Amino acid sequence: MYDTIAAIATAPGEAGIGIVRISGNKAIEIADKVFKGKRIEKLSEAEERKLIYGYIIDPEDGKKIDEVLAVYMRGPYTYTREDVVEINCHGGIIPVRRILEVILKNGARLAEPGEFTKRAFLNGRIDLAQAEAVMDLISAKTDTSFDVSLNQLEGSLSKEVSKVREILLKMLAHVEASIDFPEHDIEEVTYDNLQNEGKEVLSRIEKLLSTADTGKILREGLKTVILGKPNVGKSSLMNAILRENRAIVTDVPGTTRDIIEEYVNIRGIPLKIIDTAGIRDTDDIVERIGVERAKELVQRADLVFVVFDISHDLSDEDIKIAELIKDKKVIVITNKIDLPKKVSKEKIKELLPDKPIIETSIVEGVGLDLLEETLKNMFFSGDITIKDRAIVTNVRHKDLLIKAKKNIEDALNSLQMGIPIDCIEVDIKDCWENLGQITGDTVTDDIIDRIFEDFCIGK
Ligand code: GDP
Ligand code: ZN
């Protein structure tokens, strides 16, 4: 159905092996032109999915390019549902590139980013939400977000969405039935059915949406800002967190950047710590980046760690900082408890009521465990696992769920107000369509293209 595509499937750089993947109805024919070993086309079924030893040559001059192991898989039981050949060659940039080149010269086209997965979708092997989960798997930053993506790949979201769409179809059937008898008002039983089913749809959509916040955190990391006036211990805190927890990605601080981001994994929660203070020590945030930008940063943060030094009296600056964050999710850190105490816990409570307060001595390593425990309870309280809570992790899915929620609410309202049933039908249909865009049943080509553009090449 589609042309034959090829790409390097492994990450760029030096490695033990590299893999070039070919997919399409000419995959085997093209591979046979460049592979010298047994003829792949003539291989028995028993040899399918087994590695075959041979060489890649350039058929133009017969020169060897690399010693390889090839494997072939006949569609439809492949990732793309097409014939697939994978060539395992020596890792490193040159062998994979030269093998890819000779494959392209012999009839394959270079795959676009995500095109293998796109074909898996277009050929009906996975739905759109599952294809998106593939991308999330690749870019997962913590074990938890990996588990959640795997769950989605297995269809957790798709199954629930399909269930809701089934109910909507039932509703449409009820609507159709009463449109056939226009002279009557909606029958009581139809009305009740629509009402009940509509409520069921709404509650299922709401339940899915309630997982989106957790999902977003897992996907993007909890945006966290460390605030406090100079010398209270912000850098020490940052360093202690980085030391005790696995840093996920470390940005190299650029000379022109005044804000450093670090990803850390604290008890399964990915934190994107925006380190305004910096490991570099000119760190009066307000002075350095300006009050407005500091406000902006705080506004965008999901969480603020605010640090006070309780070995000194609170200053105007401490109070100003507290003012800035009173409506945010905050963990208050009263640091330097190893020194004589000048500020009581009550005083801090007055300043920032209803926020958890953790007493620490960062230099002595006291209080950090409690800080992490508090953080975890703040976001994932209860005994439901994170995995089950985060069914929706994707912004696109969330937006569609919000639209679908509005549709079904409109339908329910209209029903209650006795608005003609064909108007209600429109809302139910819209709801059904919006949900279908999640799984890709009702999605347009340009949206599909946009989704797969974000993939990496070779996947
Ligand atoms: P920042 O300016 O807020 O980033 O503060 P720093 O982390 O640079 O710390 C300022 C000073 O306070 C340093 O000399 C730290 O060693 C010290 N400090 C940090 N935490 C503690 C603590 O818990 N107890 C004591 N006694 N000193 C601390
Ligand atoms: Zn500092």
UniProtKB/TrEMBL annotation:
Localization terms from the record: Cytoplasm
Binding site for (6S)-5-formyl-5,6,7,8-tetrahydrofolate: R21, E86, R125, K459
Signal peptide residues on this chain, from the entry's feature table: none
Binding annotation for Mg(2+): S235, T256
Entry keywords, A to Z: Cytoplasm, GTP-binding, Hydrolase, Magnesium, Metal-binding, Nucleotide-binding, Potassium, tRNA processing
Binding site for K(+): N231, T250, V252, T255
Cofactor binding, note field: Binds 1 potassium ion per subunit.
Keyword ATP-binding: no
GTP-binding found in the keyword field: yes
EC supergroup of this enzyme: hydrolase
Subunit-structure text: Homodimer. Heterotetramer of two MnmE and two MnmG subunits.
HAMAP family xref list: GTPase_MnmE (MF_00379)
UniProt family annotation: Belongs to the TRAFAC class TrmE-Era-EngA-EngB-Septin-like GTPase superfamily. TrmE GTPase family.
Role according to the record: Exhibits a very high intrinsic GTPase hydrolysis rate. Involved in the addition of a carboxymethylaminomethyl (cmnm) group at the wobble position (U34) of certain tRNAs, forming tRNA-cmnm(5)s(2)U34.
Name of the molecule in the record: tRNA modification GTPase MnmE
